[in-house]
Amino acid sequence: MTTLPVEVHTAVSQFYSKYLNCLAKAGVPEKRRRWYVKHVESFIRAQNGHKIKSLSAQDINQYFDMLGRQNRLQGWQYSQHIDAIRILYCELFAFPACHPKKPARVK
């Protein structure tokens, strides 16, 4: 069994700590937060080592398509997966596409 360097464990712990803070700020009830973390973990595993910050919108949509095709999730569970990943990208990573700038007002 391979052991990871301490730096990796620290980085992973910090990542999830920040994500949990984002969940709290987003108003996700505490009892549901562990499920959001599990959804993000599944999403990361499904990327086969690709950095999640470098994924395109198409890559993310393909993941959601794959989840939808499995027919093992109820609607609310599918929505929870989407919300977990939305919070990851929009709140933790603060991707610009999540927060488009409003056009300047013409005087």
From TrEMBL:
GO terms for molecular function: DNA binding. The keyword DNA-binding applies. Residues 25-91 form the Integrase SAM-like N-terminal domain. GO terms for biological process: DNA integration. Keywords: DNA-binding. This is Integrase SAM-like N-terminal domain-containing protein. It comes from hydrothermal vent metagenome.
